Amino acid sequence: MTEKGKKSFWRTVVLGIIALLWITPIGIVLFNSFKQKVYINADPFSLPNAVTSAGTLNYVNAIDKYGFLDAVGWTLFITVGSVLVILVCTSMCAWYITRVKTKVTKAIYLLCVFSMVVPFQMVMFTLSLVADRLGLNTPWGIIIIYLGFGAGLAVFMFCGFVKSIPLEIEEAALIDGCTPIQTFFKVVLPIMKPTYISVGILETMWIWNDFLLPYLVLDINKYKTISIVIQYMQGSYGRVDMGAIMAALILAIIPIIIFYLSCQKYIIKGVAAGAVKG
Question: Which one of 54, 143, 171, 181 is separated from 244 by 20 to 30 angstroms, measured CA to CA?
Fold first, then answer.
């Protein structure tokens, strides 16, 4: 084996071990989801067998007893709605502040970038109070809040990509009679597809798995997301339905894993495109 081949082999071995370490916790959750909760607590690292197996009972309890399907519906609605609003609004904002160079647009860009370094814990109590008073404690209202928190990263990435688009393309569209809105949706938006996909993936993974913001803002007596339902599977006095929790976790991560694996090739491409210096 050549020196280059040896390096490639050991690199593969190391990366394989790291990948195995990352996958192991998911595997533990998966096979525990098919075990009775007594045996989950007693021996969480053993595989289910004829004695410890609960079959699909944990999944049935998670769906029927705890209303998991309703939570999936609300989570899907909030995630899709928030991501769509973030993509449309922030891409238009980034295009405008990149092409219209004034002190105001520069200040807007700096504020968006600064919002990425502000910890959520600094504003969460004030945010929950304001959201309640403005009636934003619904799945429709929380979309506006997610727009505010997701705008920083999205505007930053979109601005970087817009700077790489030749201005002559937009000027040609304007000469042909396109309005600024038509220029954006017919010319600029198709070119921004890689960054759209990257931002969409990152925002989807964040919103789908988010617990704290929905818990603080939503009226949880009416609306529960997946993360809130899983939290409520822990009963009072320390009673925890570990079997249902494991099953719910698997049901929750399967869609986002499939989504990520099907779109991961666009992440690096979009991030690199959005990192262009202007």
Answer: 143
Query: Is it the case that residue 86 has pLDDT exceeding 80?
Result: yes
Q: What are phi and psi of 108, to 5 degrees?
A: -65, -45
Q: How far apart are CA 146 and CA 161, in angstroms?
A: 22
For residue range 145-191, what is the model confidence (pLDDT) as tens digits? 999 888 888 999 898 888 888 888 888 888 888 888 888 888 888 88
Contacts of 128 (CB under 8 A, 6+ apart): 216, 217
User: Which of the 8 DSSP states describes residue 233?
Assistant: T
Between CA 106 and CA 103 the distance in angstroms is 5
The rounded distance, in Å, linking the Cα atoms of 61 and 150 is 34
CA distances from 26 to 44, 135, 234 (A): 13, 38, 20
Band of residue 271 on the pLDDT scale cut at 50, 70, 90:
low
Reading the block at residue 176, the tokens are: 């042909």
Please enumerate, as own/partner, the contacts of 134-137 that have beta carbons within 8 Å and a separation of 24 or more: 136/217, 137/217, 137/218, 137/219
| Nearest by Cα to 247 from 22, 31, 21, 23 | 31
Q: Which of 89, 91, 94 is nearest to 109 (CA)?
A: 94
Q: Tell me how many degrees the CA angle 129-135-72 measures, rounded to the nearest 5.
A: 100
Between 3.20.20.70, 1.20.210.10, 1.10.10.10, 1.10.3720.10, what CATH number should domain 62-273 receive?
1.10.3720.10
Q: Helix (H) and strand (E) counts for the chain?
A: 15, 0
Phi–psi pair at 180, nearest 5 degrees: -55, -40
| Residue 237 pLDDT exceeds 70 | no
Q: What is the pTM of this model?
A: 0.84
Structure tokens at 95: 């295009």
